[in-house]
Amino acid sequence: MEVWPSPLVVILTLCVVSPCCGLEAVAKNVTVAQLLPMSSYHGGLATYNAKNFGAEGNGTNDDTKALMAAWKAACGASGTVTLLIPPGTYYIGPTKFHGPCKASAITFLLQGTLKAATDLRRFGNDWIEFGWVKDLTVAGQNNAIINGQGAASWPFNKCPIRKDCKVLPTSVLFVNNQNTVVRDIKSVNSKFFHIALLQSKNMKLINIQINAPVNSPNTDGIHIERSTGVVISDTHISTGDDCISIGQGSDNIDIARVHCGPGHGMSIGSLGRYVGEGDVTRVHVRDMTFEGTMNGVRIKTWENSPTKSLAAHMLFENMIMKDVQNPIIIDQKYCPYYDCEHKHVSGVILKDITFKNIKGTSSMPVAVLLRCGVPCQGVVLQDVDLKYMGEGGSSSKCENAMATYVGYQHPEPCA
């Protein structure tokens, strides 16, 4: 996996000596954007301060147009550029930070809080959108926060019970980007998904903090779809739905050192619901901790898929489960609604999937559930130790799994 550079943070330590003005020598840390009113340059690096484009950052006045104006200036500049959002609370509605940019690399540096409008009539499918940008870094400093103010919207979310529901806005959508780094950002109380990656290539998300109440509907932490070369690491997610979900058409996904809980766990899918879905391949998830979640690692596909697809070449290893309802689960009869008839077989073929070194406790007796539609191919469980503290201990349940077992196994494998 190619490693992208750390985000560009333009910070200068200046010792200003000005005998012309009679000033004493002063040593002070200042951001370059504080030195000149509109933009400044140092060593070919330009910084644009959003406040110099009319952003007030008082948490009340609408700063949408000001932030988009600052982005337009930064995106249109030459060389390596930083757009600085200094300390403050910036109340904004739907905001699009689109390219392509003239800048060879651009950093969106958030030092304050972005606060979403609450009037759903203002929104389409997302709130903040970074799109069609190459070599983008979105970085936070000073406990930077993206606040979706979702509590007012959650009662209007009917997706958990209706297939034809109106989708609420995702907090941050990355669409058609290449070579992106997102780091040191906190996202709270999204209306729907917190962060979504769509048709993006080569992305790294590092040290992301995501928080929403356990009863907040569809507040997935990070959703990946039709993207390739995605790395997520050193991240903490507490939410009301999947901590991380990997949707159709995704390839080469690497996830490491993520704490998940509460929430619904780590999911591949759901897959197989729509016509023309792409395959999900080469997923490596390791060193995760699940605490009080509904699921641990889960693969979920719909029955009666309109077209065939593949979910293959996946390794889940070194997982710690703490009081998790379904620590290991393959569910090819996924349906969250009440009228599911389970008459059809999923059109998603599962192949070459390994669960390795999965340990901890299950809050339900069935700790390993492998429910395949057509027989799964190449499912391996290696060194699994999952205990249920209630009566009877933990057990396994399988359907068309044809799994291979290696090393220590608790619960006992399916007969």
From TrEMBL:
May function in depolymerizing pectin during pollen development, germination, and tube growth. Acts as an exo-polygalacturonase. It holds the Pfam family Glyco_hydro_28. It is an enzyme of class 3 (hydrolase). PANTHER family: PTHR31375. It is found in: Secreted, Cell wall. Keywords: Cell wall, Cell wall biogenesis/degradation, Glycosidase, Hydrolase, Secreted, Signal. The active site is at H264. Belongs to the glycosyl hydrolase 28 family. The lineage of its organism: Eukaryota, Viridiplantae, Streptophyta, Embryophyta, Tracheophyta. Its EC number is 3.2.1.67. SUPFAM superfamilies: Pectin lyase-like. It catalyses: [(1->4)-alpha-D-galacturonosyl](n) + H2O = alpha-D-galacturonate + [(1->4)-alpha-D-galacturonosyl](n-1). One of its GO terms (biological process) is carbohydrate metabolic process. The keyword Secreted applies. SMART domains: PbH1 (SM00710). This is Exopolygalacturonase. GO terms for molecular function: galacturan 1,4-alpha-galacturonidase activity; polygalacturonase activity.
